[in-house]
Specification:
The structure holds two protein chains of two kinds. Chain A is mostly helical. Helices cover about 80% and strands about 0% of the residues of chain A. Chain A starts with a helix and ends with a helix. Chain B is an all-alpha fold. Chain B is about 70% helix and about 0% strand. Chains A and B meet through helix 1, helix 6, helix 9, helix 10 and helix 11 of A and helix 4, helix 5, helix 9 and helix 11 of B.
């Protein structure tokens, strides 16, 4: 147990270090950050003052060693654009994105659950085939449109037709609609899986026998189908969580939500190196953790089956 | 008869259904529309509604035909997304084939590459690389070439394993058929799965491109794809929402059509 935990931490540390190292050098090789960040015509001596203040003096190797030493203490340096610690800036914007992600997960879970219940009832009772087909098509459309197109459609429908304000400062519905735009395609993805799985599950003669022997569809769903569905979807769910986070980045920019997506685009455009590196580190850790947990769950599931 | 001559030649047949015909007619219509659509900039004909002043879909704020703009952007989106996704599927095919290698190191390394790629959303990668290396179409194309590589790699790995471990492939090896020709046989074998996967990768590529262009890190306005158009129209949406409705509907239509094509084949 301790060995596998140590191995997991090592994987997270190595992968995060690898990603951050690549980004560190790539951001600096692409152009002098001081020249890009400061307005054209800034005197050389002023540039040198900023270069020192932002820790961009010395050779690349020296900068890298300084960066790693600071990172070990949990310090990402100062934000070039905000002139505050990068960790504080990221923490401020992260809260907004986390709220959006939580809202999206709640909507996705509700939508996937309701759909799964209906698909199970339809498959078990061999009824409502047309309605199930229509619901499947609706889910397919929602999934294919993705969060980006859904956000723009919402902006047009709610903003233009119904006059809802999406201003970052005064808008009240940004979060709610944003959560729907991110959560619905996520829920639709699992709804499509649950439809297929419900039909496959009922092809098993043992399951068919059990469902025919009892008339309590509700109980059958929770006892016979839901555990199998969750068992199949846990690892996919974790991997897809990172994709859901990516979805929030786009939706935030469309609907004027000041979260990590807004911050990332801004820091990338302004070459705010320390904030960009912090965001990358966060995404790398999230991605590697999701991969490791998904791997572990997959291994456990295959062991219990085998 | 040699084993190579007897090897299965499973190729993807075009679906002769109405949807495929409708798609072909739609594409042909797009090309014709670009050829005949009016591209003049007429400042006296600004923001005209559809079917007025000779503009079928109306005009924008500087009097340009919306039809012409949407058609041109659609072609850029289709060409960029379609060709990049084709390259991506091919890279995935090679990776998947490599992960079946008998050499343990190669197999392990390629499996790690595929796993890492599947855990990292393309949008993040594209966002950062696009910001670092600039907004050139060539660079964007390169980034899009890695969209969904993991899907085709996994599909190749899972499906080709059956063929590679079978007697036909062993006979090809025994006959000393060159590796490239053996790979071509594997490609034919997995093509029924790779073709619909290409539609899915195509869908993801156009969404990534549109998303990047929308946030200002994709193509520039002089090479306006649908994402760029949506970004441009987004700025004037309160004054004139119609162009954005058109661009969004077109992008949404492509997404639904591509997903439908993939879903019909993959189930």
């Amino acid at each position: 147990m301790i060995g596998s935990l140590a191995q997991a931490f090592l994987r997270i540390a190595l992968a995060s270090l690898g990603v951050v190292t690549v980004v560190f050098f790539a951001l600096r090789i692409a152009g002098d950050p001081v020249t890009i960040a400061l307005p054209p015509g800034t005197p050389l001596d002023v540039r040198e003052i900023y270069r020192k203040a932002w820790g961009l003096d010395g050779t690349l190797a020296q900068q890298y060693v300084r960066f790693l030493a600071r990172l070990a203490e949990g310090d990402l340096g100062r934000s070039l654009a905000f002139d505050r610690p990068a960790t504080a800036v990221i923490a401020e914007y992260l809260g907004t994105t986390l709220r959006l992600v939580l809202g999206a997960v709640a909507i996705a879970a509700t939508s996937a659950y309701v759909n799964a219940v209906f698909f199970w009832i339809s498959a078990e009772k061999r009824r409502y085939a047309r309605l199930a087909g229509a619901l499947g098509s609706l889910n397919a459309v929602i999934f294919s449109l993705s969060d980006f197109v859904l956000a723009i459609v919402s902006l047009l429908v709610f903003g233009l037709l119904l006059g809802v304000s999406f201003s970052p400062d005064t808008g009240r519905w940004n979060f709610f609609i944003g959560s729907f735009c991110v959560g619905l395609p996520f829920g639709a993805y699992f709804s499509l899986i649950s439809r297929r799985l419900a039909e496959d599950h009922l092809k098993d003669p043992r399951i068919r026998f059990l469902t025919d022997a009892t008339s309590t569809t509700w109980r059958n769903f929770h006892v016979l189908f839901l555990p199998a569905l969750l068992n199949r979807c846990w690892s996919l769910l974790l991997l897809r969580m990172v994709w859901l986070a990516a979805g929030t980045f786009v939706v935030e920019n469309v609907l004027g939500i000041r979260g990590m997506g807004y911050l990332t685009i801004r820091s990338v455009a302004q070459r705010d190196l320390n904030v960009t590196q912090g965001v990358v580190l966060l995404i790398a850790i999230l991605s590697v953790v999701a991969n490791i947990v998904a791997d572990t769950l997959d291994r456990r599931a295959s062991r219990s089956h085998g | 008869m040699t084993a190579e001559a007897m090897a299965p030649r499973r190729v993807v047949r075009l679906d002769r259904r109405w949807l495929a015909i409708a798609g072909a007619v739609g594409l042909a219509g797009l090309v014709v529309a670009i050829a005949v659509a009016d591209n003049r900039m007429d400042l006296s004909a600004r923001q005209l509604p559809p079917l007025t002043g000779g503009y079928v879909l109306g005009s924008d704020q500087i009097g340009r035909s919306l039809l012409r703009q949407i058609c041109r952007a659609s072609v850029i989106t289709i060409v960029l997304g379609g060709s990049a996704s084709l390259v991506s599927v091919f890279i995935g095919f090679l990776l998947g084939l490599g992960s079946l290698s008998r050499r343990r190191f190669v197999r392990g390394l390629l499996t790690i590459v595929i796993d890492l790629k599947s855990g990292l959303p393309t949008f993040f990668v594209a966002l950062l690389l696009g910001a670092i290396f600039g907004q050139t179409p060539v660079f964007l194309f390169t980034v899009l070439c890695f969209v969904g590589v993991e899907f085709s790699a996994r599909a190749t790995k899972d499906n080709a394993a059956e063929f590679v471990s079978g007697p036909m492939y062993r006979a090809l090896v025994a006959e000393n058929v060159p590796l490239a020709r053996r790979a071509a046989h594997v490609l034919l074998f997995v093509s029924p799965v790779l073709a619909p996967l290409w539609a899915l990768v195509f869908l993801e590529a156009i969404l990534v491109e549109s998303g990047l262009s929308f946030v200002g890190l994709g193509l520039r306005p002089d090479l306006a794809s649908l994402g760029v158009l949506i970004r441009e129209y987004y700025r004037i949406v309160l004054q004139d929402g119609w162009p954005m409705v058109l661009a969004t509907t077109t992008l949404g239509g492509f997404c639904i059509a591509l997903f439908h094509m993939a879903r019909r084949r993959l189930g």
